[in-house]
Amino acid sequence: MVFAQDRVPVNSETMAQIVDFHAHIFPNPVERVLPLIPKKGPLAPYLSQEMLDFVRRSARQWLTPVADSMHKAQVFMRHLPETARNALDQVGGLASVPRLFIESTPSDLIEAMDLARVDRAVVIAHPPICSNEYLLEAAQENPQIIPCVNVPPGTYHPGQALKKYVASGARALKIHAAYDGEGVDSTRYHSLIQAAADLGIPVILHTGCIQNRVFYKNPKWGKAELFAPWFEQYSSVQFVLAHMNFHAPMIALDLAQKFENVHVDTSWQPAEIIGEAVRRIGSERVLLGTDWPLVGDNMRLGTARVQEALDAGIINAEDSEKILGLNALRLLRLDEADAAGSARDLVSSKEDTSNATPA
Question: Which terminus has fewer CB within 10 Å in the chain: N or C?
Answer without folding.
Answer: C
